[in-house]
Amino acid sequence: MEEVIFLICALLAIIVYIFLSSHILSWISNKILINGLNFKKSLKIILILGVIGLFIVIIRLGWIIILVSFPLFHYLIQYYQKEKIKILQTLKVFIIFGLIGFMNQTLNDGDYLMVKEFDRNFKRGDIVVMRNPLNASQYFIERIIGLPNEVVVINGGKIYINNDLLKEDYIASETAGDISVDLSSQQYYVMGDNRMASLDSRKFGPVPYKHIIGKIFFKSELVKKFLKYYEN
Length: 232
What we know:
By secondary structure, the protein is an alpha+beta fold. It folds into 2 domains: 2-103, no CATH class; 112-219, Umud Fragment, subunit A (Ribbon), CATH 2.10.109.10. Helix content is 43%, strand content 23%. The strands form 2 sheets. A 6-stranded antiparallel sheet has the order 1-10-2-3-8-9. A 4-stranded antiparallel sheet has the order 6-5-4-7, with no helix packed on it. It is elongated. It starts with a helix and ends with a helix.
């Protein structure tokens, strides 16, 4: 029953997200292109990009998205507009659309979240909701850095996992601390993306498996703005 409720909520959230994305793409294109996209065309582009992007992620080749996203975006706009469009114009639409937040990997204050509780297969990089190991009544949102049975070392602003440097393209600052931790078979090492102000495993230590509530499945500042608009 829990999985059914989650899937229904996830489906509704995805529908709202696609709806808002399509309206925003239509609005941006009408401001920049001579003959802007209507909602129906924008919806088709969002759906095609979403399906292709999901497929690329599933086959574990997510880096390809960086290479194909703009050429595909440019092609789709030309295809549905049935006219020659300058690359510079499409690039402006692409950049503004991206800056709004659709490719944001971190969390912001006020984001709406959907937590996937029944998926307990946690991986490095997952953003999770967890209980504070020192105070179970407190909940934090953190990113998983270290996995069970790994050695996590923080030194010189860098993080090393089993002596290998951890590459993190989602943070803007170095990681403070001088720490070395051996994780047990039921422990995870977590950190926030705002390393300068985050209360994380550097303060409260490794997190037991049982203290992790679930993964963050969906987040959107746009959903918040949409709901707030209709509440007024």
